[in-house]
């Protein structure tokens, strides 16, 4: 799937997208409110910048290299979800974040089969 295909599959049409001037983003203005920042000229133009995303990726990379060290690609979406949560609630205190997480896990169960992504292989004797 192309970059535009991924964007169309995951971003609601009419949403605001802020990107740098890389040519791969050309044509997005047909379906999105596309703001472009040319880093050769400036890094911020009003609300148009990529600083938030660059900060997020920097934090994710540091977490993977420094905290988790060995990341299984099968679980990558879980690492991304955790970092997205941390980033989106970074201005809240620990108590708020804890209460929010607890409120979302009530009556949910993660089985080992679901965790590892396949059925257990029966032991041979």
User: Secondary-structure element order, as H and E?
Assistant: HEEEEHHHH
List low-pLDDT spans: none
Tell me the distance between the termini: 45 Å
Beta-strand fraction estimate: 5-15%
The strands making up the biggest β-sheet line up spatially as: 1-2
Rg from C-alpha positions?
19 Å
Q: How many DSSP E strands?
A: 4
Class based on secondary structure composition and strand pairing: alpha+beta
Largest sheet: 2 strands, parallel
Helix content: 40-55%
Helical stretch tally: 5
Number of domain units: 2
The gross shape turns out to be globular
Mean pLDDT: 88
Structural overview:
Strand 3 and strand 4 form a beta hairpin. The model has no long low-confidence stretch (mean pLDDT 88). The protein is 45% helix and 11% strand. The N and C termini lie far apart (45 Å). It folds into two domains: 3-49, no CATH class; 52-116, no CATH class. The chain is an alpha+beta fold and 125 residues long. Helix 2 (51-68) packs across helix 3. It has helices at residues 3-10, 51-68, 76-88, 94-105, 112-116, and strands at 16-20, 33-37, 44-45, 48-49. The chain has five helices and four strands, in the order αββββαααα. A two-stranded parallel ribbon has the order 1-2.
Note the topology.
Layout: H1 3-10, E1 16-20, E2 33-37, E3 44-45, E4 48-49, H2 51-68, H3 76-88, H4 94-105, H5 112-116
Parallel strand pairs: 1-2
Antiparallel strand pairs: 3-4
Helix pairs in contact: 2-3
